[in-house]
User: Fold these one by one.
Assistant:
Number 1:
Amino acid sequence: MRIAIVGAGGVGGYFGGSLAAAGADVTFVARGAHLEALRARGLRMLSDRDDRTVPVRATDAPGSIGPVDLVIVAVKLWDTEGALRSIAPLVSPRTAVLSLQNGVAKDDALREAFGADRVLGALCYIGATIVEPGVVKRTGALAKLVVGEFDGARTARLEEFAGLCRRAEIDVAESPDIARATWEKFVFLVGLSGATSVVRQPIGPIRANPRSRALLAALFGETVAVGRARGVGIDTAFASDRLAFCDTLDVAFTSSMSTDLARGNRLEAPWLQGVVSRLGAECGVPTPADDFVLDALAVYVDGAPDAPRVAVPAR
Ligand SMILES: NC(=O)C1=CN([C@@H]2O[C@H](COP(=O)(O)OP(=O)(O)OC[C@H]3O[C@@H](n4cnc5c(N)ncnc54)[C@H](OP(=O)(O)O)[C@@H]3O)[C@@H](O)[C@H]2O)C=CC1
Ligand SMILES: CC(C)(CO)C(=O)C(=O)O
């Protein structure tokens, strides 16, 4: 199976690098200094327990790869449109496309661009980021992939990809209900990213403090309520299940959005808390915790604002 990974960052780099290290036929579509480093030195993959460098193929010219069997999209949500336009040469009538991005609208963008039959469902649980060009670092032990066809079928393409992941020692699960699994991930993500970003702390201090813990619980609860109102089969108790899951995480575990905030990058909040707030308004479910997160992060959503010029009175 020939695989192209568009976006070689925390997620694309970790999962793509693991596949490449196990001998899978992987090519990264990357750009800038990161691309140069991948070409010159390979992909360095760091974690608390591991430091390995994997030689990888990488390009900024998808046309040079030609059609592949599977395209994995792993760019930030604000880059989706540009990325999908650029990968047209990778997609033939028998190519499958899968997104490891966050949110519940990511697969609609793939369907619109390539047709529903091409789209394989997927999501991942991991904390990983680019720490310098060519270097991807994972925090904590969590690194899980969930894949599935939207009709629940166990197709050849699904089995082949899952088999490659297992050979690469990636913790992969095949879900018979990938749409629901995507919403379940969304519940966790909206809460974790909202709380870690507004509190500006990783999960350890947030879960230990009663008020920030209550904020986290409220965010989980609102996404569950909105999902249920839209007919997603999530139990109300799933919110407390996610809170209990947070108690199992490494104290330093954080969200990709809080990392973006700390770096002054753009934020995915409009696709996360913004979607919960919008869908909540549509179906009459109040979302005060998500609205608070959106208000608190509003000035950072397009990247850190310029430092305010404060006039210093002359002495
Ligand atoms: N990081 C995490 O722990 C997790 C992230 N996710 C989700 O996965 C998605 C990716 O996140 P993450 O891995 O953190 O993102 P990163 O920013 O680490 O990586 C994305 C990479 O894609 C590059 N890129 C963007 N557009 C293109 C393009 N058209 N062609 C080639 N390269 C491109 C970016 O380059 P440049 O830097 O130049 O923009 C960057 O190197 C997001 O939706 C995120 O929410 C899901 C689970 C966990
Ligand atoms: C919540 C988490 C860490 C789980 O993978 C995530 O998806 C993100 O921060 O982007």
Number 2:
Amino acid sequence: MPALELVSLTKRFGDKTAVDDLNLSLEPGAFLGLLGRNGAGKSTTLKMVTGLLNPTSGSIRVLGLDLAADPLAVKRQIGAMPEDMALLDMLSGPQYLRFVGRMYGLPDALIDSRREELFDKLDLAVTPKTLLADYSFGMKKKVALCAALIHAPRMVFLDEPFEGIDPVTSRTIKDILHSLQQSGVTLVLTSHILEVVERLCPLIAILDEGQLKGFGTLEELRRGSESLEQLFVDLVGGAQKGELSWL
Ligand SMILES: Nc1ncnc2c1ncn2[C@@H]1O[C@H](COP(=O)(O)OP(=O)(O)OP(=O)(O)O)[C@@H](O)[C@H]1O
């Protein structure tokens, strides 16, 4: 049984087709890096598979469950870090994780011990009363990652988890994701940092204008191209633009 199965997934916003007849299947324990230019449809896809956005048409099965028919059962088992992080700025970090943990039915003591472990690992050193509104961008990103992992999900979706993250924490996050995969968790992340995806994700999908342009292992995809960057540009790169007229 695939961990994720998208069949003819389509999302239209008025005249704009953001995701166009997407078909994709992931085995349990897979780790997919979803690539694409700005506006390619990556976040829209992640929003649909995590139940934040209804598809225009097509179907989504997560861990064997039909998302449309059983959204709560799916949401219980997945962890998600959306593009905008969707934190509650008037809460402190620990309060927010209590809020998230309680939604998953975890006891407070377990939430707090997991949160302490996560904060320690991610070097998230803040006074407990500091509100999320006063966290830096990178610190908010770390809290969003903690919220995605606190309930030990079986499948994790992360929208640009390395954006705004310092190199040391980046390394820690890669280690966390790698060990999640080793323990059988299925992972999907989006990133614009090709080197990260190249090194971290055994499977890669490339979206362009909502359509799947490439899917496979790095070796399968790179056939004929000297690097992932070259392949990416070959598959989705637009025409070379001229120089700026006034410079
Ligand atoms: N709520 C919305 N209403 C209208 N258009 C939308 C909406 N959300 C996304 N779009 C459009 O859908 C397309 C895909 O957007 P999406 O955010 O999925 O791209 P992306 O691949 O995540 O881009 P980026 O790398 O810049 O984050 C874009 O053209 C975007 O303007």
